[in-house]
Design goal:
The structure is a homodimer of 323-residue chains. By secondary structure, chain A is α/β, with parallel strands linked by helices. In chain A, 41% of the residues lie in helices and 15% in strands. Chain A has a seven-stranded mixed β-sheet, sandwiched between helices. In chain A, helix 3 (73-85) packs across helix 6 (113-125) and helix 7 crosses helix 9 (183-194). Chain A is globular and about 65 Å long. The interface between A and B is large, with 36 and 36 residues.
Chain lengths: 323, 323
């Protein structure tokens, strides 16, 4: 991850003219909307001023801060773990969906549906202490590579969103990640990559118990931080209604609607719309991952900021800045 | 609460000589232990140095940051709410434990045990939005008074612990509250009184659901943040093993043991021992509230800091400093 940070800072110094805000964003409505909002709510003389302790900004992760195609990256983690653990589980040779994973038969894996995915998650994400799981995730994020992009997964974060996170924080916002992904899958690396402390990362949760001075991961789902779960996760972890929300799919809609319904303050909503089939992927209304349908209509009607990745972003990934 | 803050700052300026650390603490082993620990782990040249992002300190609330006698203050809140809501619930005139509450028959209320207490909590803490509940708590904390001390409950916080919280933060520690009390009962006032942001307050949880753009409180317990629940709550909300833990009862033991078992860093544990039957209350091994038995033996053996409130603290409450 150090490597990534070096790339980032190198990139920034090449691209940005001194003091330029959001240097990887092309001039246009999206960039203007962001800057106008931040200026309005941080100017003490503005009617829209928000006191610092109420500047709560929530960001989805998959598809908003990093890519999510051709499958959620946590799914690739589970697949890699099944392969790594296969020698200890001879029964997987005949048991689905493990058999399909070991045979690289992704069609059958996907056909196994939610139940199959849950089996993979339970077999690979539980049965060890939290500290053991952290070490496994860190090792994977350092070494595993994306099947088509052939770079480390943590290199597939969005440079413009990293700049946006920094920009919000520089203006007194507290930034939170609110993801459908696993809270314990994100925390070991996301804290460093996004500059968000571990306690500001919220996600889906596996049950844990305290045993022998350790936290032990139990094969049971505790909480799904998706759709209507997102405002619920925000309630438990933050305890305040946000003023700004950033997402990319209908799974983020409830969180964005909840933010918009903040009666006390001017709010801001932004959807990252995946429109770039060359540099990233193009998908929305009919995608099996990151479907953006209802949210696209509602957001357009409500003047939410809809980022057109192809037009609005100079670069997608930090590594493009080296070129 | 503004009044409280003024009292605090007045008090501090009267008591403290310039730059004196922890001015309400008498010189002695407890004060020395705290300062020696903080100096050791914040000195870059020390072998015990802890990087800033790992300086996680967890504090129990009831009995550690404020008083908890003759009953938990949240219990008095529930009692006051039952009385306020009684006219809408004629059935409470004959239904226990409500009948006993309305007749000020605390013996019968207490005899109703956990089940009775749960009934009181569900009837008074649920069935409204989170924002409505916040407003009720704020109104109560501003107006209600303690039955024997005759001051507002938020005036019964421990002045030496407020100084300790400030001292830890001034040295780069992130301070968290990890309480058996209700997370949503604490957040509306504790954030301001203790200087701890809402998202760093952890406690027991009622189920909530997202409905009609609001968080609605459902009459069901979701999580009890006590005993072995405290390390579990720390895992979900913080995601890091703390280095310093502060408590006052066996209910805090698991959290302190979990902290002590941090293999990476030098750790610190402190028990507030209630020894002052004049200024506060004296109780420990046999108390029905805040029992400190196992922890007192273990902590003494393990060189944990055991604060003798009577000897170690110049004042207990901020309002004593006006005298």
């Amino acid at each position: 991850m150090k490597k990534l940070l070096i790339v980032l800072s190198l990139g920034l110094s090449l691209f940005a003219t001194a003091g330029e805000l959001l240097p990887s964003w092309n001039e246009g409505k999206s960039k203007t909307n962001i800057i106008n909002y931040v200026k309005a709510v941080t100017d003490k003389k503005s009617a829209d001023f928000i006191v610092k302790q109420d500047r709560i900004a929530v960001f989805d992760n998959d598809g908003t801060l990093w890519s999510e195609q051709p499958a959620y990256f946590q799914f690739f983690f589970a697949v890699d773990r099944v392969k790594a653990l296969a020698s200890r589980h001879p029964e997987w040779k005949t048991e689905q969906p493990f058999k399909a994973v070991l045979e690289d038969d992704m069609k059958t894996v996907i056909a196994s549906g939610k139940e199959g995915l849950l089996k993979l998650i339970m077999a690979t994400h539980t049965g060890m202490s939290d500290e053991e799981f952290d070490a496994i995730v860190i090792e994977w994020i350092k070494t595993a590579k994306h099947p088509t992009k052939n770079v480390h997964y943590s290199e597939l974060v969005f440079q413009p969103m990293l700049e946006l996170l920094d920009y919000m924080r520089a203006n007194g916002f507290k930034t939170f990640i609110v993801s459908g992904g696993g809270i314990d899958f994100m925390r070991p690396w996301a804290s460093e990559v996004y500059g968000v402390p571990s306690n500001q990362i919220i996600g889906s949760e596996i049950e844990v118990k305290y045993e022998d001075k350790k936290i032990v991961r139990v094969p049971k789902v505790r909480f799904i931080d998706d759709k209507e779960g997102k405002p619920v996760g925000i309630h438990y972890h933050i305890g305040q209604r946000p003023v700004a929300a950033f997402g990319n799919s209908d799974g983020d809609f409830a969180m964005m609607e909840y933010t918009e319904a903040n009666k006390k303050y001017k709010t801001f909503q932004l959807y990252v719309h995946h429109t770039d089939d060359k540099r990233e992927w193009a998908y929305d209304r009919k995608s099996h991952i990151g479907q953006l349908d209802k949210g696209l209509d509602y957001g357009t009607e409500h003047n939410w900021t809809i980022v057109d990745m192809k037009k609005d972003w100079k670069v997608i990934y930090p590594f493009e800045m080296k070129k």
